[in-house]
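Q: I have 332 residues here and want to know how they pack in 3D. Can you give me a structure?
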Amino acid sequence: MAKDPVRVLVTGAAGQIGYALVPMIARGVMLGPDQPVILHMLDIPPAAEALNGVRMELVDAAFPLLKGVVATTDAVEACTGVNIAVMVGGFPRKEGMERKDVMSKNVSIYKSQASALEAYAAPNCKVLVVANPANTNALILKEFAPSIPAKNITCLTRLDHNRALGQISERLNVQVSDVKNVIIWGNHSSTQYPDVSHATVKTPSGEKPVRQLVSDDDWLKGEFITTVQQRGAAIIKARKLSSALSAASSACDHIRDWVLGTPEGTWVSMGVYSDGSYNVPAGLIYSFPVTCNAGEWTIVQGLSIDEFSRKKLDATAEELSEEKALAYSCLS
């Protein structure tokens, strides 16, 4: 039996990340090689012409799984009937802008898009927020889309998770697919905590802890963490543009694992609504280690947190609490 198409919304679809992401979705990277999709692409009116160009290219690529394309500047049309929404569109921070300025612009964008999703998306729509500040944008979206279950609103920290895997694989000169169970705790910002305390590497003689194989705690507690935290800035410096292909690829990873499940014994990092696990304040969107099964994520419980890690978990939670307060002040 052929599967029914899944409707996938990408906002900011004419931008850099959108341009990298839509062909991946159309090729089956996000939902699997046998899942037909209908792409809904939204962008702002000044980008309408560029968006139409992306639509033309999708037609020209003749993707067998792509069963339709909606390219529009109208949020209602874009959100109607969507099963998955990848929120890439947002207002970027420009030189000389205060955090509050960026926040107030994004609060108004996410408030209006949340209202459109609330009214027109499919009932069990899954939402992934990519645009920064991702955790707080997701929180605002949750606030204004009350009928979408809180567990269906997430933000992207899989990019940071994948960056951490990449750094360990390069350091140990192993395949990235042999490294697993790194964790990104907290905010998708420079306070995030990339944690390898529970990570392992598959070796010919079985799985070994990353700490044991690297055997350089100074590097793991220093340069490794700052490299992952600052990787986005390093790419902007090198490319003169922000990470697009890695962001698009990790968005696909996030949704694929969420929908199709994580492999047995493996967890991934997702920004999800905190229930107070690991003494993280409830009511923040915070990155935790999760496993996924049957379209649901579950926070991995019972991991030991040493004193070094505890401080890092608390610091990034504090930043998120401040961001939340700032965002809510922009609402009033």
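Q: Anything worth noting?
A: The first strand starts at residue 6 and ends at 11. The longest helix spans residues 307-331.
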